[in-house]
Structure formats: C-alpha cells, structure tokens
Amino acid sequence: MSALDGLYQQIIVDHSRNPRHFGPLPAANRRAVGDNPVCGDHIEVALVLDPSARITAAAFQGAGCAIATASASMMTAAVLGRTPDEARALAERLERIVTGEAPDADAGDLAALSGVARFPVRIKCARLPWRALQAALSDGTTTVSTET
After folding, report:
1. Which residue segment(s) compose the domain that 35 sits in?
2. What is the pLDDT of residues 54-110, one digit of tens each?
3. Which CATH number do you get for residue 107?
4. Is 139's pLDDT higher than 80?
5. Cβ distance 5 to 91 under 8 Å?
6. What number is the average pLDDT over the span 13-20?
7. Cα distance between residue 130 and residue 53, in whole Å
8. Number of domains in the chain
9. CB 147 within 8 A of CB 37
10. Given a cut of 80, is residue 25 above it in pLDDT?
C-alpha cells in the first residue's frame, strides 16, 4: 500500500468512526432519505437553507457501511456555507472522484474516496448521501435509492 493509500484509508476510517454532523437537525427545512437496498445503507440528510440561499447547517443520521458513513460525514462538512448550486457542483465532483473518471488530489478529505473506484460495488455506498443531498436541494423532502 502506498503512503497516499494509507492516508486515504485513515481518513475514511476516521470519518466512519467519528462522523461529523451526525444526528438530528430539528430546524432543517430540507430533508431527503437515501436507501441502498443491496447493502442496507439508510441515510437521512437534513439541511438548513437560509433566506440568502446558503446551507447554514447540515446533518445526517441513519445506518450505513463505513464508506457510506464516511462519505456522509465528509459531505456535511463540505457543503456548509455553500449555495445549492455550489453543493450540486461538489456532488458532481464527488461523482468523478468515486468513479475514477477524474482523481482529484485537491478535493480535501473527499479525495480519500477515490479508492472506491477500484471496488465498483462500493461506489453506490459513497454516492448515497450525495444523492440524498441533491434530492433535498431539489424539492426538500424525498427518498432516493441506489437502484433507481
């Protein structure tokens, strides 16, 4: 394992064991649930979108594998203070990272998810919270699945 792979693995383990922004967000005005019926991941994303159209709070709850939990943790930290369009652009960037289309060493902790590209079945796990984020930004309340 290269030093970079080791670092990336440590980042994923840290976010999985010590998720940021995990728990309820009662003041949320946008919510969406993501389900991965293949592996049982279930992630609810909650956001506070303020009148100036900035994400001022983000949280997630539910149960997921280490990759889904780490991805949700990284996502909630990364979208704070962003506009919906900026958050959507970040989700598109994540998509390119996890599919191996465009490794992105400048993506901060999100770059750690680049290793998922080597395990196609795990790509859905990394995508799940981001798909829920996009759904929450689209209409505020919905459920998305990795299988649709």
Report:
1. 3-145
2. 999 999 999 999 999 999 999 999 999 999 999 999 999 999 999 988 766 677 888
3. 3.90.1010.10
4. no
5. no
6. 95
7. 19
8. 1
9. yes
10. yes
- Compute the distance between CA of residue 86 and CA of residue 109 in angstroms, rounded to an integer: 17
Burial of 6 by CB count in 10 Å (0-12 exposed, 13-18 middle, 19+ buried)? exposed
Average pLDDT over residues 125-135: 96
Query: Is the per-residue pLDDT at 17 higher than 70?
Result: yes
CA atoms of 24 and 98, how far apart (whole Å) = 27
Are 55 and 21 a contacting pair, CB within 8 Å? no
Which helix or strand (DSSP H or E) is residue 62 part of?
Answer: strand 55-63
Q: What distance in Å separates the CA atoms of residue 137 and residue 55, rounded to the nearest whole number?
A: 10
Structure tokens at 119: 């395990």
Q: Other CB atoms closer than 10 Å to residue 57's CB: what's the count?
A: 17
Q: What is the pLDDT of residue 30?
A: 95
* Residue whose pair of structure tokens reads 């949280």 in the numeric block: 59
Longest Cα–Cα distance of the chain, Å, equals 47
Distant-in-sequence, close-in-space partners of 139: CB < 8 Å, separation ≥ 6: none
Amino acid letter for position 146? T
